[in-house]
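Q: Here's a chain of 429 amino acids. Please give me its 3D structure as tokens.
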Amino acid sequence: MKTKSRWESVCLTAAIFGALAALGAASLPRAWTHWRYSRAIGLPAADTTRLAGIVVPPDAYAHLQRGLGDVRVIDDAGAEVPYARFLRLGSESSVSLPAALLENSFSAGHYTQLVLHIRQPAPFHNAVRIQTSQAEFIEWVEVEASDDARVWRVVQERAPIFRFQKQRREGIQTVSYSENNALYLRVRILDGEKSFPVTGAAVLYQTSELPERIPLEIGVVPDSHPPPGRSGWIADFGTRSIPVAEVRFEVPGQAEFIRPVELSTSDDGKEWSGFARGEIYRYHQAERMQEHLAVSLPYEEPGGRYWRVEIVNGNDAPLEGATPHFYATPRHIIFEQQPGRSYRLIYGQYRAEAPQYDLERRLSAKQEEAAVAGQTGPEEENSDYSDPRPWTEQHAIFLWIVLGIVVVLLGYSAIRSLRRSAPPPDPSG
């Protein structure tokens, strides 16, 4: 009786483990045996053909090619489904408006003052760029607007401009203010000790649309030996090819600061190569707080297993509790959903070449945005996966062993041949 009970327990345990294993594995059609991973795509039922879309899950990048060349969409019949990709990268535009510099004066003990006239009819504007030959400076600026150059209203109470060329920091020389269509602007650089050298000024109308971002689960640890005057963190990306688009900083408290940020990568954690820099800041402006705590990357996927993020503190105290976080721009995949069909996202074929479909050229931005949103399920491993590499590449160690044996045998044969060809010893000595 005990033996039977023990046997039933063993069978039950085996069944449970088998079920758990099955949850993480699924077989793909024969044509896709070289694709190792897949995810079911959940979509509302469709009565007619329509566009559907998904976002490539951030945790899939661990098994994706750089550039996503191995991504495919297949239906429940195993047929390849053409798709289009797009990203919401955001946009920025800056239009310079015709304006004349009417005044460039200095009031000792108070400020350097500029007065600009925007030509009629004055369109809306919201920024002024101050041109200067000064290489090293940090100043505070106030901006006022007027319709008649007599009655003025403050549109920007206090904003910084700065440049530190010795530290290769171009800084900021553009001041944003409340959008208006006043004919006149009065700009005051609030340094009464000396005249600030202004070579010109431009009135701008700037617009921007923020890019789409999603957080990445990448752990960071403090750099144990940062250079003097710096705070640093190291992130290990492993083998993942993650397209990082932005580094955001969490800075607790209400401390005011303006700090440069530098980013570099390394393959071994020893030799580093810088590839991006930026500025983060937080400061009070009357009763408001001005804050920018992110550095956007000039390009994605700079390579390197390790990333180093550094805040340049100079002689200031480090920002207590500061922590960097990584963000990516989501990759949207759009395809045509047919009635009665189900779909899977497959990937993990490092020899696959990027597909070419004409769907991407046929779709407009409005159509992409209007696609029905789908969801991807958990990652499943292909139970019928077959490595696409030839046997010789898969088992290179055996080739080296065979080569070693051949070398030994050839050496042994050569030694025997030399011994046989050597003349017999002379008996006479």
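Q: Can you summarize the key feature?
A: The longest strand covers residues 273-285.
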